[in-house]
Amino acid sequence: MTVKTSFLQIDTNKNFEIIDITSKINELIEIDEGSISIFSKHSTSAIVVNENESGLLNDLEFLLNNLVSDKFSYEHDRIDNNAKSHLKSFLLSSSECLPIKNSKLDLGTWQSVFFIELDGPRRNRTVTLTMVGE
To answer: CB-based contacts of 23: which residues, under 8 Å, 6+ apart?
Structure first.
């Protein structure tokens, strides 16, 4: 059994941004078969798996903005004025665990891995990749 760890550094350009990181992850895979944990070290970002289709990605932003609306006052805003970003993060996930086969992510035909920025723009967002296998 082998365990390998790598890191992705991501700079974002917008307050809300969906970035396909699938190819970057595949470049960093160091095992032939096993699994990979993909973890964002930030409480105002997310890691998700879904289809990379522009309409769907726009729909996700629309959905999150309507679920966590500007029409409400949030207690956390008294601290650093980013409660909406934290609340959206609660609805998503900070990590995914995925299979690896032939040194690549073993995803479905339409699946991609995304880093979602919820409080940008930011520099040096860190995603930890932990691979376990052979």
So the answer is: none
